[in-house]
């Protein structure tokens, strides 16, 4: 009987030790897996690039996400074989997040979209670089597609007009989006922008959406004052309707390759280029820049008037004097040239 009691007490003691051990192990495992490991006050983002470098990820978690115990994260990641199954992307680390929550998100590739914004961009190269600053893809990947005649044709553009595809705005995309997927997204945004109403307005002035973009790019290069956009657009539409060459100075600057020119000389007017609207009638083959929504709408909602000429105001305010007759324009031009001479601008 005594032996039975001793064995019973021994079993109780061993069972109690087992229970305590399991509780301790369970509590430790719980803390290891589910207790907050990222001491931050606001959401931060970590990036996994195409090289899928686990060491770099851990470094980001320590440096940016306030990881207090990176060894625990590493050990769980190893147990889950995450190192061999990393997915590229931009991932949000939330305040108070635990190891398992983060790893589950990383393993599933549940990334957070990023915002891309582009405006006031002149050349395709500049656009490609601007986009690459916010995305995993390189500027070369984007530029390669924009310079590919077949790819541009598949979207209904040429390598000269592809800039018209991009409507300056803010968009949400995934950081690891591929270059072709990005352009496909921009194509959807382009079609969304060109509503039935805008298409009707373009048809009324006998321009395609691409031609509207080309004219808008000239308008925006002509004046930095947005309220002049409809006036300048109306002036060029008057010239197009009458078959008068546009004779737009920005097209000469584009042809020369120097937008810093403050004074257009006769030698500039003689450059042979399809973009030189002093030598070639009609619109140039492509936009001089990526026009803004305000510029595009400025063309579509142009002001009706009889102006055929424009000249920068002599006060260098950025505004223009508009004229109906050549004689009036020449007087405006003489005042502007006199001010250029006075300021010794050559």
Task: Provide structural commentary.
There is one protein chain. 51% of the residues lie in helices and 8% in strands. The protein is mainly alpha-helical. The chain starts with a helix and ends with a helix.
Key traits:
346 residues; mainly alpha; Dna Ligase, domain 1; 3 domains; two-stranded antiparallel ribbon; two-stranded antiparallel sheet; 15 helices
Which helices and strands occur, and which strands form pairs?
Blueprint: H1 2-34, E1 44-48, H2 54-63, H3 70-79, E2 89-93, H4 99-108, E3 114-117, H5 124-132, H6 139-146, H7 149-154, E4 170-173, H8 179-193, H9 196-204, H10 209-222, H11 229-242, H12 249-256, H13 266-269, H14 293-300, E5 309-312, E6 320-323, H15 326-342
Antiparallel strand pairs: 1-2, 3-4, 5-6
Helix pairs in contact: 5-6, 10-11, 10-14, 11-14
Provide a concise account of the structure shown:
Helices cover 51% and strands 8% of the residues.
């Amino acid at each position: 009987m005594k032996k039975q009691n001793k064995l019973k007490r021994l079993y109780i003691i061993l069972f109690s030790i087992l229970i305590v051990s399991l509780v301790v192990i369970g509590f430790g495992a719980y803390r290891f897996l589910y207790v907050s490991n990222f001491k931050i006050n606001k959401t931060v983002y970590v990036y996994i690039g195409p090289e899928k470098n686990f060491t770099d990820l851990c470094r980001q978690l320590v440096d940016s996400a306030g990881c207090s115990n990176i060894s625990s994260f590493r050990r769980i990641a190893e147990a889950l074989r995450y190192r061999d199954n990393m997915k590229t992307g931009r991932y949000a680390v939330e305040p108070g997040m635990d190891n398992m929550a983060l790893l589950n998100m990383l393993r599933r590739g549940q990334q957070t979209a990023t915002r891309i914004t582009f405006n006031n961009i002149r050349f395709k190269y500049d656009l490609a670089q601007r986009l690459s600053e916010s995305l995993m893809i390189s500027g070369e990947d984007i530029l390669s597609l924009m310079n590919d005649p077949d790819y541009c044709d598949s979207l209904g553009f040429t390598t000269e007009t592809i800039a018209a595809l991009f409507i300056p705005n803010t968009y949400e995309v995934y950081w690891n989006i591929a270059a072709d997927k990005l352009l496909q997204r921009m194509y959807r945004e382009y079609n969304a922008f060109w509503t039935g109403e805008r298409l009707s307005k373009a048809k009324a002035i006998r321009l395609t959406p691409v031609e509207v973009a080309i004219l808008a790019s000239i308008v925006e290069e002509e004046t930095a004052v947005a309220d002049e956009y409809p006036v300048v657009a109306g002036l060029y539409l008057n010239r197009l309707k009458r078959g008068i060459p546009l004779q737009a100075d920005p097209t000469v600057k584009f042809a020369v390759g120097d937008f810093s020119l403050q004074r257009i000389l006769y030698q500039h007017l003689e450059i042979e280029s399809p973009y030189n609207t002093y030598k070639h009638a009609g619109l140039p083959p492509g936009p001089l820049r990526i026009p803004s929504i305000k510029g595009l709408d400025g063309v579509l909602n142009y002001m009706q008037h009889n102006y055929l000429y424009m000249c920068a105001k002599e006060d260098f305010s950025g505004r223009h004097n508009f004229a109906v007759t050549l004689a009036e324009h020449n007087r405006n031009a003489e005042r502007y040239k006199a001010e250029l001479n006075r300021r010794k601008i050559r």
